[in-house]
Write the structure tokens for this entry.
Amino acid sequence: MTSMQTAVLYTGLFILLFIVLKGLVGRVRMSEKIMFGDGANERLQRAQRTQGNAVEDVPVTLIGLLGLGALAAPVWLIHALGALFLLGRVLHAVGLSGSSGGSPGRMWGTLLTLLVMLATALSCLWFALV
């Protein structure tokens, strides 16, 4: 597997995650009979925030992974960043969709997400400047 193939693999996996999150919002909308807005419904608000948090963090990090792929960064690095990022986003989604308060999944997911975003940014800088 090349660096670019590895980066594109994680792009595909994150697209699947987005589909799951979108489906979650739709399922809650249907069950709660709320077709527009959030109806001040906490369950729908959580589902929307879960999807929204992913929309905030995933695209920019995927751009970084694709950049690393384009610069032929080591495959192991892209796998490590991509897999840990995916784990972080899944932990966050499970934690937030289950509770509007704090939860271990939300905490670890957020921490892992931030660490991977930072590592991806630093890796991009390193491979662009070396």
